[in-house]
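P.,

For your records, the input lines for the assembly:
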Amino acid sequence: MKFGEFGGRYVPEVLIPPLEELERAYEELKDDDRFKEELDYYLKNYAGRPTPLYFARNLSREVGAKIYLKREDLLHGGAHKINNTIGQALLAKFMGKTRIIAETGAGQHGVATAMAAALLGLEAEIYMGAEDYERQKMNVFRMRLLGARVTAVESGSMTLKDAINEALRDWVESFEYTHYLIGSVVGPHPFPTIVRDFQSVIGVEAKKQIIGAEGRLPDVIVACVGGGSNAMGIFYPFLRDEDVRLIGVEAAGKGIETGKHSASLTAGSKGVLHGMLSYFLHNENGMMLDTHSISAGLDYPGVGPEHAYLKEVERCEYVAVKDDEALDAFMTLSKLEGIIPALESAHAVAYAIKMAEEMDRDDVIVVNLSGRGDKDMGIVMERIA
Amino acid sequence: MIDRSLIVFFTASYPSVEKTVEFMLTSAEAGADVIELGVPFSDPVADGKTIQESYVRALRNFRVEQVFEIARGFRKECEKPLVIMSYYNPIYRRGVKGFVEKAYESGADALLVVDLPYDEAEELVETCNDVGMKNVFLAAPNTSEERLRAIDELSAFIYLVSTYGVTGERREISPLAFEALKRVKNVCKKPVAVGFGVSRADHVRQLIEAGADGVVVGSAFIRIINEKGGNAVEDIRELTLNLKSGVS
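Structure tokens returned:
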């Protein structure tokens, strides 16, 4: 139930029964052959798995180590989020729920939730911070096209954290017929475990693929971390491979020293929010701080509890990359490889490039390219104009 | 600690330390039997719009220290029980021991932590026991009998949430509340207070008649303060008197 001291179930009493119901349903379903077959079917035929592990030859030549990209950006919807939403939507149906709710930051999880809901005949309502709603208008429109109701959340900092607050408030009222389809490895137990398990398909595939391509495991795996679902997904199957360095890249925003960032593992401290004990950016009174990142998907003052644990036991390393560095990597990857990454994923690319400059030609880095950058055109156009 | 009690909730430091003390004393004088003092929080997931708004405004100039100042100011003038209500992070961040000791010294009698179910509360409960502070835990209409027994064991009184939802005024008390009240009273030995959506004298009367040992009213008071700020004193007195008529 916990990752060391992290995780747990810090929720009002009324949410304990629905969380217990969810845990029981998931335990029953996760090893059920028919469920696994059904999930595999949709992942393959609907979402587009397996995704390629692409050797980025031009980029590698330029930077000095072999960089492979795990192409989650090629999935239906444009990000890794669909791995989790199809899994949880099937789980919701198994539990007899007719409605799903979700929070979204960049809009990618909202889109993936709306898709899974349409596919499986569920009603969907998506909560989105009003600020994100403005900066990710295209995704709002996409969610509506897919049949979801999108609600802009005007409270607090009007970003991802507030969208989660509002989804939790909805769930307290509606849990009898509603599943809260949480989008990252955050929230009260069992959510961080469920989301990690559904996202682990990324690491399972990547392991086979890199062994196929290189005949060995990679030296380093790099992934961006907001809540941390794509990172957990690719790290998890490698946790016992101790020679593989696992590096999570947080958003340093305008710089850690400016306070305008979202790097909770790098610059935060232990706290409790959204049902979990983890690392958070909060002041000395325990109030959550306003965070900043150029990428809405990383703009969150906390992080999944398993990451907090993996940092504490020093299995994974966590670093932070600034807006400008992510933007440079965004441009570099677009020009050199013809691949436009999501600004979130560009953080991982930026750090991989930085590392490669210090590594040998034969060293192997796998970058989780968690999403594509189409949704970020508006922001990037503003920044480079 | 409670018996046919009217429990009134105020947000700490809203609109100021001094005004909060004045509101609390006014309400106690007009008939409130217990005062619940809420620590404002940046992410109050169990609260509806009215209390959310009070938290946002209170946080513009807030330090946890102010909660203790308010408790001291109240205790100096009034002996009625004082319950501090908080989300867990402000307590955790300050350090459980430090918070509980300071709250107790300041005159608080009990602590209610909204997002801390008893399974996660070991450190808090132990600390409170050491210090002499009482605990209040939430129960809900869907809480199992097994959990109710554990809550009963640990609580000075049980705070029963009347419905599936967040805090806020509602026209009617949900039928769920009456069913749940009956069940909780059957299972638990400790007194039971009902809160969430309780905002009018007829609500109070119905719940007391149905066997509640206390009722908690929050949003109805906070709405007045949202509208009138520091000038809400007379309205607070009137609302307290009015609600109290439902108890006696």
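Two observations worth noting. Chain B has one domain: 5-244. Residues 5-244 of chain B form a domain with the TIM Barrel fold (CATH 3.20.20.70).

Regards
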